[in-house]
Design a protein that fits this description.
404 residues, transmembrane helix, MFS_trans_sf, Growth Hormone, Chain: A, MFS_dom
Length: 404
């Protein structure tokens, strides 16, 4: 890193990101599914779809709003830090409420609060990169944040799987949020914004015209499609292992963590390598295209070969290939997106709009999954659909003209 981007600051940014992603994916990967099965055993898929769908809808709406408020925050400690700290506090409260939820309604409301709070953190954290990092270094920092996301997913899943109960899992994730947020809070390098610098805000400001900013629109579309393919896999992985692969409940819990760890290890390596490689090459599109095609190949393995045995380890191979593809994609796509933002004054708002492309698939994935599974196409049909949208998301990146 250059002197403008100290390693200590990047380390703090990575750590707080790990905590945030743990809080999101520990529940998504394990705890929400287990809780839905316990509270509504005869309708577990529908209950899980309701809870995750409402939560994702909340994040879709609030992420750009939190971003816009962050752009206009004029506190002396800076404009991003208050939203990181407030989001972490709200996330802790949400985990406590989830730990004691006794009905699907309570679970849905608590998860909606968790999504609202953690997306406040996400909006502020992502905006600090274009605030503080030169464009030529964003691939490397994007790689570091991709690693943080992966480590957060692995850590959250591991904590949830090893906790022994949903209550203990949620309490442990609340503790992780506190521990990982503290170092960043002590060294945020956040810049205060004067009231005279604060841009006005109206409802129309949340609309970014695709006609005026076509590259931004295409970046949004490609991210949406890639994340939709990923969401179709992740949200139903636990049930896929039970219903398609044939594992018992205990076996499925442990296997979710093991697959996530294998995926995570590959993601860490490829995110770092791809991020720095794209910085040095001065190119982004070719990395996005190949990463999307590799991701689709992994989804095909999940669709066509639901086997885990030592002689037919297709699902394990799929997890490794998925980590290679999605790790490269996450690092380079983040750098690409920061180079097509419409304005400097509204970075957090614009990144919030981009983050809708990450959150909205979590709303649509349960709907699509319910339709595919309801038609009797099974997980083969579901993951073939995921592979198709991933291919489409990767190739459409060529429509972006301002970034090669």
């Amino acid at each position: 890193m250059s002197r403008e981007v100290p390693r200590s600051w990047v380390a703090g940014l990575v750590l707080v990101s790990i905590g945030m992603w743990s809080g999101l994916f520990g529940p998504i990967q394990v705890l929400l599914a287990e809780q839905a099965q316990a509270l509504a055993p005869g309708h577990k898929e529908a209950a899980l779809s309701l809870v995750t769908g409402v939560g994702a809808a909340v994040s879709t709406v609030l992420n750009p709003i939190w971003g816009a408020f962050s752009d206009r925050t004029t506190l002396s400690r800076g404009r991003r830090l208050p939203w990181v700290l407030g989001g972490a506090a709200g996330g802790v409260v949400a985990m406590l409420l989830l730990s004691g939820a006794g009905s699907i309604l309570e679970m849905t409301l608590a998860w909606a609060l968790a999504q609202a709070a953690l997306n406040a953190m996400l909006a502020a954290i992502t905006a600090t990169v274009p605030d503080q990092v030169p464009a030529g270094e964003r691939g490397g920092v994007g790689g570091a944040l991709a690693v943080a996301q992966t480590l957060g997913v692995v850590a959250g899943t591991g904590i949830a799987a090893a906790a022994g109960s949903t209550t203990a899992g949620y309490l442990a994730l609340a503790g992780v949020l506190v521990v990982t947020t503290t170092p960043y809070a002590l060294n945020p390098r956040d810049r205060a914004v004067g009231r005279e610098e604060r841009p006005p805000l109206a409802l129309r400001d949340f609309w970014v015209s695709p006609r005026r900013h076509p590259d931004f629109a295409w970046a949004w579309i490609t991210r949406f499609l890639m994340n939709l393919g990923n969401a179709l896999l992740i949200l139903y992985l636990l049930y896929y292992l039970k219903d398609a692969v044939g594992l018992s409940d205990d076996e499925a819990d442990g296997t979710v963590f093991a697959l996530t760890a294998a995926y995570g290890l590959c993601t860490v390596v490829t995110a770092f390598v791809s991020g720095y490689w794209s910085d040095r090459a001065g190119r982004r599109q070719v990395f996005v295209i190949w990463s999307g095609l590799i991701t689709a190949a992994a989804l095909l393995l999940f669709a066509l070969a639901p086997t885990l045995g030592p002689t037919r380890p297709a699902v394990w191979v799929g997890a490794v290939v998925l980590g290679i593809g999605f790790g490269a994609y996450t690092a380079v796509d983040f750098a690409l997106v920061t180079q097509v933002l419409p304005t400097a004054d509204d970075r957090a708002r614009d990144l919030g709009v981009i983050n809708i492309a990450t959150a909205l698939p979590q709303v649509l994935a349960p709907v699509l999954a319910a339709g595919v599974l309801g038609l009797g196409l099974g997980y083969t049909g579901l993951y073939l659909l995921a592979a198709l949208v991933s291919v489409l998301g990767s190739v459409l990146v060529v429509r972006i003209r301002s970034v090669v």
